[in-house]
Every structure is written in C-alpha cells, then in structure tokens.
Amino acid sequence: MSFISYLINGISLGSVYAIIALGYTMVYGIAKMLNFAHGDVIMVGGFTIFFAVSMQGLPPVAGILLAVVLCTLLGITIEYIAYRPLRQAASSLAVLITAIGVSYFLQNMALLIFGANTKAFTSVVTVPAIKLAEGQIMISGETIVTIISCIIIMIGLTLFINKTRAGQAMLAVSEDKGAAQLMGINVNGTISLTFAIGSALAAIAGMLLCSAYPSLTPYTGSMPGIKAFVAAVFGGIGSIPGALIGGIVLGIIEILGKAYISSQMADAIVFLVLIVVLLVKPTGILGKKIQEKV
Amino acid sequence: MKGLKLNKNVKDNLITYGIVIIAYVIMQIMINTGHISSLLQGLLVPLCVYVILAVSLNLTVGILGELSLGHAGFMCVGAFAGAFFSRYMEDVIEVSLLRFVIAIIIGAISAGIVGFLIGMPVLRLRGDYLAIVTLAFGEIIKNIINVLYVGKDSSGIHFSMKDSMSLGLTEDGDVIINGAQGITGTPKDATFTIGIVLIIITLVVVLNLIHSRDGRAIMSIRDNLIAAESIGINITKYKLMAFSISAALAGMAGVLYSHNLSSLMATPKNFGYNMSIMILVFVVLGGIGNIRGSIISAVILTLLPELLRGLSNYRMLIYSVILIVMMLFNWSPKLINLRKKYSLRRLFKKTGEVR
Amino acid sequence: MKKKVVSLLLAASLVTAMLSGCGNSGSSDAGTESAGTEEEADDAQQTQTDASNAEEGSDETPAEGSGETYKIGAIGPATGGAAVYGIAVQNGADLAIKEINEAGGINGSMIEYNFQDDECDNEKSVNAYNTLKDWGMQILVGSTTSGCSIAVSAESANDNLFQLTPSGSSVDCIKNDNVFQVCFTDPNQGVGAAQYIGSNGVAEKVAVIYDSSDVYSSGIYEKFAGEAANQPFEIVSSEAFTADNKTDFSVQLQKAKDAGAELIFLPIYYTEASLILTQANAMGYEPEFFGCDGLDGILNVENFDTALAEGVMLLTPFAADAEDEATKSFVSAYEAAYGDTPNQFAADAYDAVYIIKAAIEQSGAAPTDSASDICDKLKAAMTEISVDGLTGEAMSWEAGGAVNKAPKAMEIVDGNYSLIQ
User: Fold this and answer.
1) C242 touches chain B (CB under 8 A)
2) With contact defined as beta carbons under 8 Å apart, do C33 and C100 qualify?
3) Residue A285 lies in a domain
4) Chain C contact for B195, CB < 8 A?
5) B11 in contact with C at a CB cutoff of 8 Å?
6) Count of structural domains within chain B
7) Are B38 and C130 an interchain contact pair (Cβ–Cβ within 8 Å)?
8) Tens of pLDDT, residues C169-208
9) Which of A38, B79, C6, C322 could bridge to B254 as Cys pair (CB 3.0-4.6 Å)?
10) Has residue A167 been placed in a domain?
11) Using an 8 Å Cβ cutoff, are C197 and C203 in contact?
12) Which residue in chain C has the smallest CA separation from B181?
C-alpha cells in the first residue's frame, strides 16, 4: 500500500517538475539557449498571484491572468535587453552567463520588494482530492490540476508549433536562423514570441508550484528550476512530450529513492540515474539523434 | 621581424606571468608598509583560489571546448581531502609548510583521480548534455560529503555514512569530517605567497600544455572532432588528459580554500552548482580560451561584491546589473564594432605611423 | 586585444577605488541614524565610504577607537536563502542601539553601528569581518549562522576582538575564549528536547525529520538521538532532507506514519516546518509536533493558516506573542520601524546589544580603549553579569562562552504561544 502512495507522491512532484520543464524545453528548442532565469520568472509569477490574491483580495482568476500578463512582458523584456544583443556573439556561452545575471537580478529585486520572510501561498486550486482505499491513498487536487494542465499545454504547444504559421516560423528559426531570415521570417519577432510563451507558461507553473508546495521566498524558483532543467534533459531537451515524461520520471525516482534507499542521498540518487540514462541514451529519453557532419 | 613573430607566444606568456608577479610585489610592498586594508589583506588568498579555479576551468571550457558545470565538485574533493590530511596529521607533522605542501599534493591528486574517473564515461557526451552530467556529478560529490562521517581514535580511522554516533569512536576519538558540519579547526596554513606560487604552477602547467604538441591535439579536438579523429588523434586520451589536469588544479585551489578558513562545510553556496557557474562566469567574462582574461575577470568579480558593500541591501542587485552590462559590453557584436570604431589604437593609428 | 585593455582599465580602476578607500580617514556619524530603511541604506553607504580607515590600523588590531563612541559591528546574511535570519539580526541590533543612544548611550558614550552582509558563506563572512575591522569595529555581534560564526571566530580570536554571536548555536562557535553566545548551544537544545519529551511522557514513539545538510539541524538531531537512548521513548523513524530537496516531505511523513509515530521532532527552521505541517494535514496525519528555537516564527509566516500549527510544542527562548511588557514593547517598536514581526533572531540580536551594554558597564571599558583591551575587559565581565532579556531571564555566562538560561516550553494554542508549566 505504501508503495502506491509513494508512487502517487512521485507523480505529484513529477508533474510540478514537468510543467516547469515544458517552459524550459520550449525556449531551448527554439532559441537554443538554457534560460537559467526561467525558475526566477516562475517565482515572479508566484509573487504576483500572492500579491494580487492574498494581499489585494482579487479573485484567483484575475490573479492568474495578471501573473501571465506580467510574466509575458517580463520575458519579452529580458529577451530584448539581455539576450538579443548577444544572439550573434562568438560563443553561445555568453548568453548563458547573462541569463545567470538576470536570475540574480530577479532574485534580489524580489528580495528588496517583498522581503526575505517566507510567505504562505494560498492554493488557488479548488478541485477536491480523490481518496481511494478508505483514505489510504490520496491524490490531491493540485496534482490532478497540474497533470491536466501539463497535458493541455503539451497538446496545445504541439498543435501550435505544427499547425500555425507562427509555430512553423519557430520551427524554421530553430532549424536555421539564417535561412529562416532569408525566407522572410522575422527571426527577432519569432524568438520574442517564444520567450513570451515560455514566460506565460512560467507564470502558470509558478501558480501550480506554489499551490502544491505553498511556501514562497525570492529563491523559491531557483531549485525547482534546476530540477526541471534536469527533467527536460532527461526527457530529451527540446522535445515537448519528453519534458512531460522526464518530469514525471524524475519525480518518481526522487520519491522512491528517498523512500527505499536513503533520504539523505535523494539528490545523489536522482543525479546518478540521470547520468546512467544519458550514458545509455546520450540525448535523453525522447531526444533526437544529432548527425554530425564534417 | 619574423623572429619577433615566432616568439609571440612566449611574449604573451611572459606578460601573463609578469602581471601575476607584479601584482604580488605590489601587494607585498603594501603589506610591509602597512598600506593595506584588512579587507584586501583577507581577500588575497581567496583571490588566488578563484584565479586558479578560473584558469583551470578555462582549460576545459576554452582549450578543450567542453562545457563543465561541475568544477566546484573537484574543488570540493580537493578541499576535503587536503583538510582531512591536515587535521589528521596536525600532531604528527609539526612543520606547517611541509604539511601544507603534502596536503596540496594529496588534494590535487585525489581531485585529479575523481576527474579521471568521471571523465572516462561522460566525456563522450557533447555540449549541453555533458554540461548537465558534470553538474550532476558536482551535486553528487557535495551530497556524499554531506553524509560522510570520518573519525579517528587510537585504533585507526572509522567511516560512516549515517551519523557520527555510528562511528563507534573510543573516548579519545576525534570526529574529523562530521557530515554537514564538515571539518572544523583546519590549520590556517594558506598564505598569499603560497597562493601566488600555486597560481604560477597553474599557469606553467596550463600555458605549457597549450603550446605543446598535446595542447595542439586538444585544440584540434575542440575545433573539429571528426577531422582530428581522422588524422589519428586519440580523442579519449586527450580529452581525459585535459579534463583530469583541470580537475587536479581545481583540487589544488580547494586545498588552498580549505586552509584559509577554520570551518569547511559543503554547502550549496561554496561547492554547489552556483559556485561552478560562478567560475564559468569568470571564464566567459574574461574570454573563452583567454588565460589572462580569466585571471583579470576572476579578480574583478571577486572584488566587486566587496567594493559594493557600501550599497548595503542593494549590493547584490547592482552586482547583477554590472555583470549583465559587462557581458553585453564584452560580447555583443554591435558593441564590439562600436568599440573598434572608437578604440584608442585606431585613433593613434590615424595620427601617426601605420604599422 | 582591445578587450583586454578595457578589462585591465576596469581592474585598475577597481583597485584604485579600493586603495583610495583605505586612504580616507573616518568621520563618524555616530548615533544619528534615522529610522526608515532608505536612509539607513544611505547611512550605511556613508559609513562605508568612510569605512576603511586602516591607513595606520592595518595590523592585527584596528586603531584605537576614534573618539567617544563604541563601534559595534554585526554580520549576517542579508541576501541569499538565509536572508530572513540576517535581516532580523540587522534590525534587532539596530533597534537596540537606537534605543540605547536615545537614552543617552552607554556611560554617556554613543554607539556606532555597521552591519555587513555575508550571504551565509563562511568566506564572505570573513570578508565582512575584515570590512568591519577596517571601519574600526571594537565589538562584534555575529555571525548569524553557525558555520560563519566558526569561521569568523578564528579571525576574531587572532585579533582578540570581543565577539558575541546572537544565534550561532554550534559548540564550535565558542571554542575560542573571546566568543560568547546568546542562544542555546545545539547539544543543549537536543538533549533538552529529549529530556522534556521523556520526562513529561509526551510520546512513546517519536519520529525525527531533520535537514542533514544544515549544521544547526544535524547538530541538534545528533544530540537528540544520543540522549533518546536514555529516555523512555523510542525513535521509530529518522529521515533527512537536504537544502536542495526541501519542498516535498511526503516520504518522510509517510514513513513516520507507517512507523506509528505519535510525535514528530522537527529540529529545523520554520520555513520547512510550515510545509511539513501543511503536507501532514493534507495527508490526514495528525501526530504531535515538537520543535526547537528554529521553529519560532512559524506563526508569523505571512498568510500561514495558523490552525495547522495548533498544538505544536517548541522549546524556544522567545515568542513574539508573549504577554510580558518587555516583549510587547520590543515587538511593537520593531513592527513600527521595520514593518515585520520580529522572530527569535531579532530578539537574540536585540539582547546581544543589551548584554554588551551590561558587560561594558560592569567592566568600565571605555570607547577610547583598543579593541583588544575592550575584549579582555568584557571577557572578564561576561562571567560576572546577569541580564534579563527577551530571550531569557537572569542569563549568565561561563568563561567557556555558553549561556545559562532556562528554555521555555511553549505550545501553540488558538494561534498563540502559551507557556507550558
């Protein structure tokens, strides 16, 4: 019995990783950059909802909308100021470093505005928990909402990329920026759009992360951000279904590792499994094989 | 003219050594005449640590061309190995310099071995996947150190991965590595002079490697792996060579770090991925593959937060802004063009002789 | 090449800035710090520019106190994950110093105050200490966290500078004879908690959830587990979490539940504890919870459903809701000045300043004495004084540095702390 409840806990945790990983993998797939600030955009989303709903008393829907709008604008601004000037830079590492700078900036800005005290986030999810086997096993409302959101977002993103002109433009940009430009695609606009969508997803992830684990500090986003990045790599970074699978697998490994091996070594176990997976399948579970040309 | 050109490398290296030695002499003069603040004096050894880390990571990132996010893990191995030795031998070897030198060697070798063991399986991954695997190893190392308990008593050394009670030490026992509480009371053997000597050693190793036959082989892997393989370069061997040397040097920096502070703990702050990323920031800001740049940017970025102390609570905010601005200034193609247009050298060229 | 020149220029300018900083001699802005964080920042900035007057004081000890003021420095994390504790110490000490200055200072001399950020990093803490030394610090309140305190105590012992750590609870903090503690030591808390649970028969089966990557938490856990062997209860499950893995506690709680624990001992900070309480409630598990002083503050987590904390017991020296006059006036003054409810760290720092005041008055150390002389005098005085503070009545010290005070066992009833007799 306890195994099943561990498994369900793993899926709950994994679904949170998955929803963050979706944003990561989306930006990586198109813009080919690791956006280390993604976790901190999630934190901004969480704080916006906290501010709107818990402090100003707005209805949750308004709070979520506000967070989505604000994070979208934030994402576009960050891209414009910190990433765009370096797109043609000699090394792709340069933009990784500015992303870290942005991450520090957002954390410290939140620290100055909201202070260092922990805030308890009121869950905006009102779906009741499902209880099975006389209450021995419980699936929380947050988990249900998170998993459903993950699936909707995954399908939505896949449809968007494959069926719309803007989505096709994104694919083209991710394949070859130069050629896309020659075909009349607005590369800057497309990448801005990618960041806008990625950041909007971050706002939703922020809402779900903070609903599931209701404590909010300026550093709330950074650690789940890194874990989600690992999950995205697990699933094959750039692959949208991969992010979902990677996230959930990571969550399950983490919980089972804690439960059956050692709670002190949970991180080491997760990372060890990651290494083994990557050594067997160097581009992740659903990653594309890269053909190297001379 | 041709002779001069041939010696360009030598000249370049001499400038690098020169900068280090001049910096050392200036600092020594300042210390001896008392014109130095306690803050700066306290920062001298950390500066050496970060310079060594930056230069050694540059070997992996700049020369080998692989992104590593686990450099702090090697530093951690070196720091704990070295500090353990010093604590263990504190009563046996009385001469602190001798003890410290042995500790450095032990730290460097153990980090090098760990680097070698990790490098063997993972170096066949490429790009971001290698980055994430090195990050993972760094975190694993930190995690293991946090649950490692080692103590000594009259009957020898005891290990445990659970807690210090299960070491079963006798009354006179001494817990040396106490899990998350780390090692306390490491003798403070690190000095600025030793730090500078270690920087010079690092530079000699790295610069000589770069300009040797092996170094050219390593760089050929970076520039084109398939072409390098096709002319018979042993990819695995050279990758491992660069990676382990880089790890060993990081371990050396770790020993220096651990002997500068009386308490050593593996926290996310000093040995986690944050630190690995910070070292990467030094390397990228200074110019990938540019050893001198690494030294300068490590010094600037270590001093910067201290200089910004006057800003009180706005300190880290301003630090992040400066970091972003410096990155844009150093790397943005537009700004680079702009700088070229208005550079001093160009102005000089206009007025005077054209070379 | 151009890049290098620019970098060099940058480096040069930074170094010059640093050196010229040393050249300035300090003009003091003693005791005129006005309220409000904006101005405080400015003040600190000013202090900083005047700071490193180490022109002549470069050697071991800072120069003789410049003028008629005591210079008290404080160190703690003002940024980073542990910022909440450092900022509390910053404000708590600030409040006490303002009060003392308004009331006419110590023996008529004002106090100057300077707080430095250490980001909860041992190395940065030593940097902060050196910065304060350059400023001319005579007495140190700090560091806030155990690891940093240990690192700094090696330096302060070398300089023979009096150090009083408000909240560094490890025994290693007070190894040197110039360092004293305001808070309980970890062993004291761990053993105390085990004895309390045992002698009051609170529970027979106990589970522990602790942070194995944290000095404070693992320190208490060890002593608790050691003492538990002598007590009439049994530890049925002890599970850890780490700094990188502290959002999901379902496994730890499930194990405690499966083992049939009636009580969960939480030697951790309240941020994680609030999550544990929430998650235990969500899974319908209702054991008793028992914590140490790190748990204090849980009722002040903004927006936290305090009903979850109902019945939680903790051994803590301070509670912001206590009814006595001293606590009430401290809490209201703190809230007015900083817009936050003070936690135990703020109270410890507040007490630290008053303890220093008492020790100075006892010993007659003058502001014009050197830091080393002040240290010698205060060391002797510390063992002679007894201070009634927010965090304990009749606190006294052994020469070793540990404090003698009685822990108070509190229980949360109706969203308030109430003393268990």
Assistant:
1) yes
2) no
3) no
4) no
5) no
6) 1
7) yes
8) 888 888 889 999 998 888 888 888 898 888 888 888 999 9
9) B79
10) yes
11) yes
12) C215
**Shortest Cα–Cα distance, A75 to chain C (Å):** 23
Contact of C311 with chain B, judged by CB distance below 8 Å, is answered with no
pTM over 0.80: yes
For residue C63, what pLDDT is reported?
39
CA of B43 to nearest chain C CA: how many angstroms apart? Answer: 7
Do B266 and C243 touch, CB atoms closer than 8 A?
A: no
Helix (H, G, I), strand (E, B) or coil at C202: coil
Determine, for residues A120 and C304 on separate chains, whether the beta-carbon distance falls below 8 Å. yes
Q: What is the ipTM of this complex?
A: 0.90
Against chain A, the chains showing at least 3 CB pairs within 8 Å are: B, C
- How confident is the model at residue B344, as a pLDDT? 65
Residue of C nearest to B43 (CA): C127
Can you give the residue range of the structural domain that contains B319?
43-351
Q: Minimal CA–CA distance to C162: which of C47, C61, C287, C255?
A: C61
Secondary structure of B124-154 as H, E, C letters: CCCHHHHHHHHHHHHHHHHHHHHCCEEEEEC
Contact A197, A170 (CB under 8 A): no
Q: Per the domain annotation, does A251 fall within a domain? A: no
C408: β partners: C316
Residue-level pLDDT at B5: 53
Chains A and C: how many Cβ contacts under 8 Å?
A: 102
Contact partners of B by the rule of 3+ C-beta pairs under 8 A? A, C
- Four-way CATH pick for C65-184+330-404: 3.40.140.10, 1.10.238.10, 3.40.50.2300, 3.30.70.20: 3.40.50.2300
Residue keyed to tokens 């659970």: B162
Domain presence at residue A90? yes
Question: What phi, psi does C310 have (nearest 5°)?
Answer: -55, 130
Q: Do A259 and C282 touch (CB under 8 A)?
A: no
Measured distance CA(B79)–CA(B186) in Å, rounded: 11
Residues 101-140 of A with CB under 8 A from B: 101-102, 104-105, 108-109, 112
Write out the E strands in C263-346.
263-266, 288-291, 313-316
Please state, in angstroms and rounded to a whole number, the distance separating the CA atoms of residues C154 and C175: 9
Handedness of CA A227, A229, A233, A239 (dihedral sign): positive
Give the tens place of pLDDT for each residue, C376-404: 999 999 999 999 888 888 888 988 888 88
Of C14, C62, C213, the CB nearest to B307: C14
In whole angstroms, give the CA distance from residue A241 to residue A236.
9
- Distance (Å, whole) CA A39 – CA A89: 24
Is B218 a member of any domain? yes
Contact flag C303-A118 (C-beta cutoff 8 Å): no
Q: Which residues of chain A have pLDDT under 50?
A: 294
Instruction: Assess if residue B2 is contained within a domain.
Output: no
* Rounded Cα distance, C71 and C106, in Å: 12
Task: Give the chain C residue nearest B306 (alpha carbons).
Answer: C127
Residues C187-316, CATH architecture: 3-Layer(aba) Sandwich (3.40)
Å from B307 to nearest chain C CA? 7
Q: If we measure between CA atoms, which residue out of B91, A135, A275, B81 comes closest to residue C283?
A: A135
Closest Cβ opposite residue C274 in set A120, A138, A258: A120
* E strands, chain B, in order: 149-153, 156-160, 174-178, 183-184, 263-264
Q: Please give the pLDDT value at position A290.
A: 58
Between chains, do C84 and A259 touch, taking CB under 8 Å as contact?
A: no
Contact A264 C79 (CB under 8 A): no
Distance CA C176, CA C157 (A): 6
The reply to whether C260 touches chain A by the CB within 8 Å rule is no
Q: Where in chain C is the domain with CATH 3.40.50.2300?
A: 65-184+330-404, 187-316
Q: How far is B229 from chain C (nearest CA, A)?
A: 32
| Range(s) of the domain holding residue A113 | 19-220
